[in-house]
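Listing 4. Sequential folding, example run.
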Amino acid sequence: MRQLIDFPYKHVLVLGLAKSGEAAAKLLHHSGVQVRVNDQKPYEENPQARTLGDLGIDVITGSHPMSVLDGIDYVVKNPGIPYTNPIVDEAMRRELPVVTEVELAYRLNGDNMIGITGSNGKTTTTTLVYEMLKANDKGTKLAGNIGEVACEVAQTTSEKETMVVELSSFQLIGTETFKPHIAVFLNLYEAHLDYHKTMEHYAWSKSQLFAHQQANDFLVYNADQEIVRELVASANSQRVPFSLENKQPLGIWCDEEFLYYQDECVIALKDIMLAGKHNLENIMAAVGAAKLSGVTNKGIQQVLRTFSGVEHRMQFVKEVQGRNFYNDSKATNMLATKNALEAFEQPTILLAGGLDRGNALDDLGPYLKNVKAMILFGETAPKFKQLAIENGIETYDVVDNVKQAAEKAYRISEAGDVILLSPACASWDQYRTFEERGDMFMDAVHTLK
């Protein structure tokens, strides 16, 4: 197990546990750093806190007293804890570094890291890059939002292996020296404004992916988005654009038949299994990262001819009496749901709803032309009901959860219909994760008769 070497801080507070906090605390302790852990959940109900306590780590649970900052020179916080948290706010007032565990992962393995972010497509792109490296027999490990905690994976990653890391804005905002050797910036759309408050702050958070890159690093980016082009203009790394709209002599692009890396034909579009315009953008970004990592066209082709998608992202579940069920629970914003709706020409029953972040839903209207009914749940159900009415969708209903939604949709459907779970909202009002939401939907579909 690798340790942090020349780590300049001696007394570290880990604020908030869950998987990332536990992993960070264990790494720091293993590296000889004095660690204190603070978590809201009471000790008796907190197995992670008890595990860390057994290691001799100072554990304070049940509340967040300001005294947890006494003697501390560095804070590692759970990504979900907002910067308005009193402990975080006070730490910043004292000018203490406040980071997330990906900063520790970089300090262990930064020279061999591919970091991928964007508002949409992160999981698909990260998986594609990982599979492409594997297909070319390059040692690689998967980490971040998509897999295991990054700083935990980094401890067992050798100098010859590459970490492929999916990164959220919540993680990136808490970085100090972090810089992946290859950064991939997919896109930027309005999201997570309940956390970031402004689009400007959200964009700045995403830009931390490449803020510390240097001239020998690479940045693969979406040249079709003006906001992305403006953000990457300040990067010191070598910029590698991808575009669906224009030929990119220094990057990745397509014509009507083929996908190219610079002037090199990589694969015929007809040979790519993964469908959808948005997925073609993800594929181009993945090809850029793979080629920069030395993956051959043969390895890329092998993956793209067989890869059909990731779990909970436009995942075909089952055909029941001529109805095709799709699980797109990972669609936690409107853009993802727009992309899902665009993929179908058949009559569609849309299952949607979830956490209300204050967003209007009007932009979904033009994408509802094939939607014959809507089954709604969660905090945003009333907003979706109004959206249905405004767009002339006469069949709609509000249910308690996605299990009921699947059952109701089946009852009102006909052979040839698509029944699509694509919530356009985060899951946290009813479910711990979008995976839990998607699993409930799939379980319900498999019990239909």
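-- end of first protein; second protein begins --
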Amino acid sequence: MKNILYFASLGPLALLPIVAGTRTKSPRASLKQCVQLEVPVPVIADNHHYEMPRIDSTIDAVHWTLNTTAWSTPNATERITCTVSVKQTFRIRAQLCIPTKGGPRADILQIATQGRGFDRRYWDVEIRPEEYSYLDAAISQGYSVLTYDRIGTGESELPDAYDIGQIPVQAEILAGLTTLARSGKLVASSQILPATTGIPFPSPFHFQPSKIIHVGHSLGSFVTFFFLSSHGALSDGTLLTGFLLNKQLGTIVVSHFDHEFAAQHDPSRFAAYPSGYIVLTGQSDIQKLFFRKDGFEPALLEYAEKIKQPEAVGEYPSSDSAAFVPASEFKGPVLFMAGEYDYVLCGGDCRGQYLEEASRGLFPASPKVEAYLQPGTGHALTLARNATGGFGVMLGWLGDRGL
């Protein structure tokens, strides 16, 4: 079938609940069993040192934003002063969930990577999870799911924000987690933490998936792509949400949003975050970045503020200077998925902006490279009113492609 931008007509997917406001039920905690892990992930990667102002206060954070986006500032590649060779083991907090009743898809593992501003709770929203938890939606269809906090977020390690917290390291952490999962050694190599949900995990617990699907959102999709470009043979399929190659990509930059130095912004939450970590200032910026008016419930905006996470400034130039190397070893299907009115991706309107040929060129060995716009939705798909409709599209797409 020709690679097309799904929107008004979806063929078989048209039967799925994709209309804004449509909701379907997903499982409760009793239908899944989860284990909390602290995973040591060894990484070898080449980062870069970029010339940029340091951030040790909110005044510095505003200056960094203005300096980075000024027309006269050299681009990220021109600001590289040297290569930073990283050889380090990172402590990664993760959660592995499997369906309690097993099933034909229980040995298909989805590894989900969230974007900027969130930890792994992006995938498992705590407000009405039957409507907003992608993890529960995937479990209800029989999949197993691994979510984790990227370095610099949640309960994972907080590295140097300038030279270590960059895209190459994030991509190699995803590769490390994937390799452990494929080998069946993920749980055995980790520290098992006390908190579990559902039926207690067998001990010792062995889980070795037959297939692995990589799911990303926003920066997490960017990290996922760079993982696929280097380690494509480790993946059987990918859902790149909050990510769309389009004519407006790059027009909305960090200066469109207000950030503060994380430790100064909210010491009760972020005192442990060192120099170079910034965080969105408040709900107005969160709304601008992640939400579409009439497409979200106010309680979800308040929730996003409650769980928001700082960002390492090294992620910005390492994203801007990264070369899009085709994922030539990846042979699985690809779905790009964005909100119809995604501000950060498409300047507020993604309709008619998709670059199909360029997207296909990134995955030359893939049998399917397709794209889909979720109606009436902004950047944060799991927090939108029609989140479950989007989940239905994602999971239905996987099922139709044998995953």
